[in-house]
Amino acid sequence: MQGKNPWKPDRPTSRGAAAYHEAVSKAEYYITILDELVKIISPKIRKKDIVVDYGAGTGVSALRLLEHLKVDFDLWLVDNSAAWLGKAYEVLSGNPNVKCFLLEKTAHGYSALAETVGKGVADHVISANTFHLVPDIDETFRGIADALKENGTFAFQSGNITRASRPKGALMVDDSVRRVHELSLDIVRNDPKFAEYKKDIDARIKANESQRKFVFPDPRNISVYLEALKKSGFEYQEPSFKLFRVRYSDWLNFLRVRRLQAGILPEIGGHEPSEKEESDRDSLITMAANNLFKELQAKNPLADKEAFTIEVAYVVAKKKSSESSQLAGKVALVTGASRGIGRAIAVELARQGADVIINYNKNEKEAMEVVNEIKKHGARCIALKADVSNFDEVKSMFDSIKKEFGFIDILVNNAGIIMDKTLQNMDADVWNKVIKINLNGVYNMTKHALPLLRKKGRIISIGSIVGIYGNFGQVNYAASKAGIIGFSKSLAKELGRHGITVNVIAPGFIETEILNSLPDAKKKELSKSIPLGNLGNPEDIANLAAFLASEKSSYITGEVICVDGGLML
């Protein structure tokens, strides 16, 4: 085993940790929430895997894992509280597969997970009800990524994460605690029994605000967590949000944990309350909680006489392999990316770590489907509408890109159309339309991209074997693609001094919508003419585009690379 030696307590379990364990280990809502997390992570755990329970607290989540998983795995419990971890040790130390690790206090917070257990040693990290308490999410997630093996799983949940579409009436932990605090102070101000605490109450509220926020910090939006995952080298699934009923009796037991009450109502007694202050604080919180429950029954659409409803967020991520993060930190713009080759390129660039801007002209629905697919890889992604043949629309799009991203690293000129006719039957409109989109579009895009393109940037244009060899009935298309080749070779000479490469991919017969519209017999005939014996697919082009976008292609520029299965040999 790498990392530090496992931790053992040097003092008896604290009353606070024991009370918290007792309160949540028997609460139906808490067990149900944990079991959902276990259900998500359990299919991924294999024999002899190392599972780290980060923020293990008093060991309740670990107990649920051990109860549900029947495989032989090692479970490492990690927490920054010796008091709470001591209770977990007490409960679980009899299991030889369980070890405890304490995050050490540092000048800037606590040691990272990788510093505590070792680098690249864990197969999975899970965390229950922890990360809304962590001040520096970016640093913490980096430590978790460092502790995981490549392709390791990271899953966590919290009932204190905001989002725009949270159902009306669904509460967060902080909602109820904040309201209990407000109602407790109302009682102090109006109930003669607690008149002794009324003096200077406003000053004490202000003085203790930081303590309350430390124990029950303000919730953050889900986007904060997803952005931190991406920056730490994770790709994540779309988060899921689930509703759970919380019985008033269970919630009151939670609120009455004495250690938590110092954070709920620090204005009464603070950290070292007298016996009377501690008793009065408990009475105030109990009265306030019962008032809250009545308030919820009367006003909250998801509450009744027995329970209220909370929303819990579940997030599952995977540590990217070094191969899949080779474009991390890069920003790519792909034109015509709502379908076909453009879509495949956009998704592959995101899979390898790049943030992606989707350009489309007509089909917003398909463009947003690509955006959603890309976000599953942990990449930032937006869709921008612009006709690449319209100089002013392209300029407006780049104004938006500058405002949103500030720069780009990769430009993929993919947008194009086909309008086939023999020259004898081709009118000027058909000629001009193809040239405007296929060739003028490349000029418009590249012209506006250059001011935002960083050094060592990449310009990749999708040509065609028709631009090299010609084809019957495609003089306009062949001319546009041949023009792209000449444009790119010349531009490569202009931009080489900046380390910017310019290359062309020339696809052969690729299974896109146009080719799929052909009869099967025709496609079979085409396949026979290809030495490799089959048509290509969009991913074949996307894989080459990702290579040309990476550092691995830094000495390749001005080239035209055919992806045609040997068709033109």
Topology:
Blueprint: H1 15-25, H2 28-41, E1 50-54, H3 60-68, E2 74-79, H4 82-92, E3 98-102, E4 105-106, E5 109-110, H5 113-117, E6 122-128, H6 137-147, E7 148-158, E8 161-162, H7 173-190, H8 201-207, H9 209-215, E9 220-221, H10 222-231, E10 234-236, E11 240-247, H11 248-255, H12 258-264, H13 275-299, E12 307-319, E13 331-334, H14 340-351, E14 355-360, H15 364-375, E15 381-385, H16 391-404, E16 408-413, H17 428-449, E17 453-462, H18 466-469, H19 475-495, E18 501-507, H20 513-516, H21 520-528, H22 538-549, E19 560-563
Helix pairs in contact: 1-4, 2-3, 6-10, 7-13, 9-12, 14-15, 14-22, 16-17, 17-19
Please, could you describe this protein's structure?
By secondary structure, this protein is of the alpha/beta class. The protein folds into 2 domains: 15-319, Vaccinia Virus protein VP39 (Rossmann fold), CATH 3.40.50.150; 323-563, Rossmann fold, CATH 3.40.50.720. 44% of the residues lie in helices and 19% in strands. The protein is built from 22 helices and 19 strands. The strands form 4 sheets. Strands 1, 2, 3, 6, 7, 10, 11 and 12 form an 8-stranded mixed sheet that branches. Helix 15 links the parallel strand 14 (355-360) and strand 15. Helix 1 crosses helix 4, helix 6 crosses helix 10 and helix 16 (391-404) packs parallel to helix 17 (428-449). The two termini are 55 Å apart.
